[in-house]
């Protein structure tokens, strides 16, 4: 990886940590709060592309694992990574990679609505399909109950998907994906 790519990955890891400073919205019926950090996951994929986006989220998870307070509410440490939020957190590099992969594929004809669709499929649905069952297993509830509870995230996740798509299109000219397309 080039130095510029490492810097981008580190900046996005830091950006996602900053999004963790936004207070979460706790839900009474599900142990995982609504956070702004998935916005960073979607933006990383749309802006950085598959490799750098996944790497930025791996960096982020390593920072959380060593105890830095990068998760919402200033949390960090291994306990968080085996708690109810674990499946969601570990889905982030996968989601960022998939969003980046799809964004790169569509880049020459990219439109806001296409990025929005990519964010919904990989940043909302995929994250929920990984996170909710893991949360259900950890909390000893049924997977169907976990998936049903994850529906409560949809309104906020759709707003984050829209924001990520719009911001990524506004930053398209300076995206590493754009640079990669011109250098190919």
From TrEMBL:
Stated family: Belongs to the BioY family.
TM region positions: 55-72, 78-103, 115-138
UniProt keyword Membrane present: yes
Organism from which the protein derives: Paenibacillus glucanolyticus
MF annotations from Gene Ontology: biotin transmembrane transporter activity
GO annotation, cellular component aspect: plasma membrane
Subcellular location: Cell membrane
UniProt superkingdom: Bacteria
Name the UniProt record assigns to this protein: Biotin transporter
Membrane topology: Multi-pass membrane protein
Alphabetical keyword list: Cell membrane, Membrane, Transmembrane, Transmembrane helix, Transport
Keyword DNA-binding: no
PANTHER family recorded: BIOTIN TRANSPORTER BIOY, BIOTIN TRANSPORTER BIOY-RELATED
Pfam families in the record: BioY (PF02632)
